Structure formats: C-alpha cells, structure tokens
Amino acid sequence: MSKERTIPKHVAIIMDGNGRWAKQRGKERHEGHIAGAESVTAVIRAAGDAGVDYVTLYAFSTENWGRPEAEINAIMELFCYMVASRTEELVKEGVKVRIMGERSRFSPKVLSMIESIETTTAEGKKLTLIIAFNYSSRREMLLAAQEIARRAVAGEIKVEDIDEELFSNSLMTAGIPDPDLIIRTSGEYRLSNFLLWQASYAELYFPETLWPDFGKEEFQRALDIYAGRERRFGKVIQDNEEK
Ligand code: IPE
Ligand code: IPE
Ligand code: MG
User: Fold this and answer.
1) Measuring from atom 1 of ligand 1, which residue has the nearest CA?
2) 226 lines ligand 1 (CB under 6 A)
3) Alpha-carbon Rg of the chain, whole angstroms?
4) Are 199 and 178 in contact (CB under 8 A)?
5) How is 204-225 classified by DSSP, letter by letter?
6) Catalytic residue list contains 64
7) Cα(172)–Cα(147) distance, rounded to whole angstroms?
8) 16 lines ligand 1 (CB under 6 A)
9) What integer pLDDT is reported at residue 239 of this predicted model?
10) What CA–CA distance (Å, rounded) separates 196 from 144?
11) Catalytic: which of 49, 53, 64, 178?
C-alpha cells in the first residue's frame, strides 16, 4: 500500500550552533554567523523544492541583545548584506519575505533593509519566508494581550469574544498557519522563547548538526522524520484512518 509522503506546510527552524562551529575552527563567532547564512540559502531552496509553503527562521531573539556589541553589530551587518545580495534571487525563486519582531530598536539602515526586502518580494507565491528578528514569544503574547485589552476597553470586542482564533490573529504570526515541524540544530533541546503559543502541536526535531553544517540533505532528512511521525492532536487514531 503506497501512502503519499506528508510534507509539512510550515517548518520553523531555530538556527543554533554558529558560535560553536566557529570555535571548533579557531575562528571568531561572527564567522560562524557568516557560514550560517549559507545554510539559510540552501534550506530556503530545499524547502521550496519540497513544496513547503512557509519557513520561519529564528535569526535574532530579544535576549540576543545581551551579547557582546561586536557580535550584535556583525549580525546586523550580515542581515543587511544578505538582503542586499540575495533579494534578486529570492524574487526569482518566488519567495515572499516577512520580518517578524519588534522594530523599534533597529538602526535606520536595518529598518530600510527590512522595508526593502518586504516590498521587493511581496509578490512571491512559491514560499513565504518569515525571519524572526528581535523576536520573543513572551513579548509577542504580551503585546497581543495589550492589544486585545485595548480593543475591549474601547468596546470593539466583548470579553467573551476572546477565543483562540482572536488571540492567534493578534499575534505577529496572524494569518500564518501554526508550524507543523520545529527544528532546532546543535543538540540543544529547548525552544528559547520561540513560537510558544504556535508550537502547541508542532512536531519537534533536534538534530546534533551545528547550523552552518545544516544543508539540503539534512533538511530532507528532517522532512523524512516528520513524514514518519503520527500526529494525534489529542485524539485516537482508528486503525483504518490515514495519518
Ligand atoms: C545561533 O548561533 C545564531 C544566533 C543566536 C544569532 P549561536 O550564536 O547561538 O551559536 P552557539 O549556540 O553559541 O554555538
Ligand atoms: C536561540 O538561540 C535564538 C536564535 C537561534 C536566534 P540562543 O543560542 O540565543 O539560545 P540559548 O541562549 O542557547 O537558549
Ligand atoms: Mg546558541
């Protein structure tokens, strides 16, 4: 009996291990981030080819502002460089880019790169790429709670109207389906403030590979592992039921 392979609609990735990758090679941490940028390109392509509709990449957490200034600056510069050098290719590949996170702390240059990539890629139809940049899930949920409270106080909604759908639609991920698969590289087994609400029924996969070593084959392996999982969503699967 042949069964069609289940492809996740949305894959979210915590790209971890750049610093360790650099250290293993006697390099500076920022060189690990530069190497990690190549994995980003490879994974976006592999995801598009596989028929994944949404990819979310955790690129910079709210907590990452606590890192040394030189490293933060290197990450911001790398972001600008990647936008400048890869936008054309993303447009060609049909990738629509959205940057998710609070923008108030970014420099004018980073802000203009964000606007540029979102505008230029807006018509992409093949894959939506969401880059979590100055993102934290708790902060996202607090902002949503504030927005909902404001609307309730203004009389736009009733307290009884606050349901899962309204809450989901008040998050930064409004309109994006929940991730089916969350991958965290580098052998760390935690979510580090990433998509906590949205991850409720995501399948989790924790490869040991450091992010700069994660490429097309590794991504395909993750899809294979996902295809072999049984998602139950709290229910009971009947013997004759398809997965
Ligand atoms: C992930 O790699 C990239 C960012 C958090 C920006 P790390 O920089 O966290 O790498 P490790 O965990 O120190 O190896
Ligand atoms: C999570 O990685 C954030 C990103 C990948 C952007 P960290 O390396 O910052 O997380 P912790 O500190 O190990 O939990
Ligand atoms: Mg890390």
Assistant:
1) 16
2) no
3) 19
4) yes
5) EE--SS-GGG--HHHHHHHHHH
6) yes
7) 12
8) yes
9) 74
10) 13
11) 64
| Run of H or E including 22 | helix 18-24
Say how many Å lie between the CA of residue 211 and the centre of ligand 1: 9
Q: Any catalytic annotation for residue 16? A: yes
Report which residue type is found at 140: E
Confidence at residue 1, expressed as pLDDT on a 0 to 100 scale: 43
Q: How far apart are CA 117 and CA 24, in angstroms?
A: 33
Q: Which domains does the chain have, with CATH numbers?
A: 10-135+178-227 (3.40.1180.10), 138-176 (no CATH)
pTM of the model: 0.97
Between CA 201 and CA 206, with CA 205 as vertex, the angle to 5 degrees is: 135
Distance 202 CA to ligand 1 centre (A): 22
Nearest-atom number in ligand 1 for the CA of 75 is 6
pLDDT at 5: 84
**Each residue's pLDDT tens digit in the chain (243 positions)?**
445 789 999 999 999 999 999 999 999 999 999 999 999 999 999 999 999 999 999 999 999 999 999 999 999 999 999 999 999 999 999 999 999 999 999 999 999 999 999 999 999 999 999 999 999 999 999 999 999 999 999 999 999 999 999 999 999 999 999 999 999 999 999 999 999 999 999 999 999 999 999 999 999 999 999 999 999 999 998 876 654
Distant-in-sequence, close-in-space partners of 61: CB < 8 Å, separation ≥ 6: 132, 134, 135, 136, 192, 193, 194
Token digits for 143? 């902002």
* E strands, 83-174, in order: 95-100, 127-135
The neighbourhood of ligand 3, an ion, using CB within 5 A, equals: 16
